[in-house]
Amino acid sequence: MPGAKTKLAPFERKRRSRLLVVDADTQVRGIISEVLPGEKYEVVFGESSDCLETLLPEDSPFDAVLIDLFKSAENYFAWLSPLKEKQPATEVIFVSKLDDMNLWTEAIQCGAYDYLPRPLDREELKRAIINALEKNKTSLI
Fold first, then answer.
1. Which of 77, 74, 87, 68 is nearest to 18 (CA)?
2. How big is the CA angle at 85 (ends 84 and 89), to the nearest 5 degrees?
3. pTM for this entry
């Protein structure tokens, strides 16, 4: 139709995947900084579980959260359910020096995406984080 205006789709800026890392270990922070390129991933670091309430606002969710179980695991498992209710697409990865199959099973049953024992394998850490971030991205499409 002559003179008709075509509606152009708005420009969609590619959103970087967001990862929250709650771990005081500088080695883990260094590995994550190395394996996740800044132009594709936004990584926010917190040193303790105290930051979870303030860093997980409902209006700006993270695609994935990596948490070191440096306190009682039950506290984190109890925290996981309300998080998944508010932000069901956010994937949670637990890291612990406790290589306990029961702890891994409980973490997964509570809704965690993965559980990684320490010492961390660099490639396994990278795989778990990227898969969690990508899973979230594809679930939003």
1. 87
2. 45
3. 0.80
